[in-house]
């Protein structure tokens, strides 16, 4: 292996393997379970789940893998090969495994974040414009009003503005005006003195006062009752508050950011929202683009969520099938980024294969639609050729692979990737590798 340019580290114990995989960058790993005992499995699992390492399991011909070993191979290994095998072959398979690990390890989201704010992702023109607006409004003290559909990232934007503003060291206080019972909103905002009303047994500092020096985020401002709107307007005009039950005026210096997903213009026309308050709050306006208008960002966000939560899955999920990407691009996303987060997290739990499918995401498969990209056509053709050949060869892996003109390892990989079946009862022994007829294949 060294002659082929590989830098080789050999580990004879599970602890040795842990030490070796802990410090490597992107690498390929070859694992032979022979010689390891069940007590090593936990440590081996830790090595195998390292995202930077693409693993290939190797086994001497005739050796039967235990149930746990088969589970580890199925969930964490890129390939499974039996010896004896030509050296060139091993090198080639390891090259593939390393390449896959590299793809897996690369996080496209890291390239697309709002500079200085690692949480917000967006490469499309609309998001780049939004990032520009955030940078500009952050440096002023004027009221910012954020409008956008549910789940588009209004709160994230408000936090980004605060974090980039000169107020970043002071508190960011958020209050959801829609979630607080109307009769409690005034006391939540302004606070109260002991004895101000029945049950007020001690002084309470309101959210406005708590945000002193920093930013107050008034979420769902459209739900604020008219009485609280009048008090808020007074505060914005005077810069002072009075706690309930007190006549003392306390100066408070805050920057107000507000947001809503309802149509405030319509609420103003109906008399449910004060126009004079709106003009105070909305000196600068920020519009969040809906997810369906963000093009390629849908895919980038999906990868970001996958990277973030894939450790919650027991399988080593590698990405999305082309049809899953197409399904995500076609979906209208009424719940925007929040909905995308939820679908990808659900898919991580539901997935049968190593690539997430439209079915895992609970989205309509674009294969039913009229227009198909070349990637989709290839995927569908590949899947259906494998299905037909498996049936024709009575689920004998060796014969099926030969008929398709691919190696058995490639066939295994494709079947696992497409979630066609569980590998747990597969073996690569020619005499034994007939799969039980599986109607889902
Ligand atoms: N550009 C983005 N990059 C990464 N994550 C995002 C982005 N936009 C939103 N999110 C994530 O989506 C979820 C919803 O975002 P947020 O709560 O800011 O939306 P919202 O517009 O305030 O929603 P709602 O109208 O329901 O209150 C959060 O988990 C947030 O982290
Ligand atoms: Mg919100």
UniProtKB/TrEMBL annotation:
Pfam families given in the database record: AAA_lid_14 (PF25601), HTH_8 (PF02954), Sigma54_activat (PF00158), VpsR (PF20161)
Domain Sigma-54 factor interaction per the UniProt entry, residue ranges: 120-349
GO biological process: regulation of DNA-templated transcription
Coiled-coil residue windows: none
Keyword vocabulary terms for this entry: ATP-binding, DNA-binding, Nucleotide-binding, Transcription, Transcription regulation
Gene Ontology molecular functions: ATP binding; sequence-specific DNA binding
Translocase is among the record's keywords: no
InterPro entries: AAA+_ATPase, AAA_lid_NorR, CheY-like_superfamily, Homeodomain-like_sf, HTH_Fis, P-loop_NTPase, Sigma_54_int, Sigma_54_int_dom_ATP-bd_2
Highest taxon, organism lineage: Bacteria
PANTHER family: TRANSCRIPTIONAL REGULATOR-RELATED, TRANSCRIPTIONAL REGULATORY PROTEIN
Name the UniProt record assigns to this protein: Sigma-54-dependent Fis family transcriptional regulator
Native source organism of the sequence: Paraburkholderia lacunae
